[in-house]
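INSTRUCTION: Work out how this chain folds

Fields: amino acid sequence; protein backbone structure tokens

Chain under study, with its fold:
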Amino acid sequence: MTLNYFDNIVEKVILKSPLQKKKLKQYLASKDVTFFADAEKFAQNYAGYLDSQLIPLDYAVSAYTEMCDNMMKCQIEFMKTGKYTVDEHLEAYEKVYSNETKMKSYMIGLAISQFLWSTHYEMYCSFAVGIRRLSNGIKSYLEIGPGHGLYLQKAMEYLPKAAKITLVDISPVSIAITKSIMDYFKYDYMSIDFRMGDILDFDSTNKYDFITMGEVLEHVNYPERLLIKLYDLLQNNGRLFLSTCVNAPAIDHVYHFKKVDEIVDMVRKCGFVIEDERILPVENLPIELIIEKKIAINYCAILTKKI
């Protein structure tokens, strides 16, 4: 029997990492026709992209399973010490973001996780719904840390052709991957303003109608500074899509949010109003047990400015 693209990825993951079989089977058994249609479209498109870059699918699967293994090691250390493995942004930059081999593998692994992890899929869907709903009013779009490029790719499906698009990322590898994604899907990336550097150093007089910052807040030592910077960059009637995590150690996570309330309080303190939010524990357990056992929680929200 010939497997479709998504099933092929799942089967390769299970062969590479048999311990994931039970959890993946349970997760996929709960999904509907819409999910599998979206997952197949993603898998087919991403397999084509990998092929265009001369990257074997087996490499991508290995990148994903290696990422999972690294996160498990970080989780074990976290349960012993109560602390993240890395506590300085510069250390994460030296070990990961500036390392071409590690960063490439990390970004490809994260891309694969978009449809294999329930929380990543739910955040991706929340972003897609938000950008689609607001797209007609978006004349300027800013994304911080585009990483694997999939959020930008989704945004490009809905943004008006005349929208001004700016990307800021501290990693040259991430910038290169995003450019290659834009090239493969035949988006005119030459019209996109790519800026390599720290968003805190981003000098712009422009205000943006929509800002995307997925999974960045936990990567910096002073997230409040970052939120204040984004407040200044956002139009008064603009929207910010934000995602981050609680009790989620990783090889490049620096800031440790211990509770969802800490994220909410910080967001509000920096002048934002929560228009919509999703609280997404990585395990299907009662929230009291999630909190007690310090199980990771993903969080995403669409924010507006408090005027």
Summary: The first strand starts at residue 140 and ends at 144. Residues 73 and 250 are 9 Å apart (CA to CA).
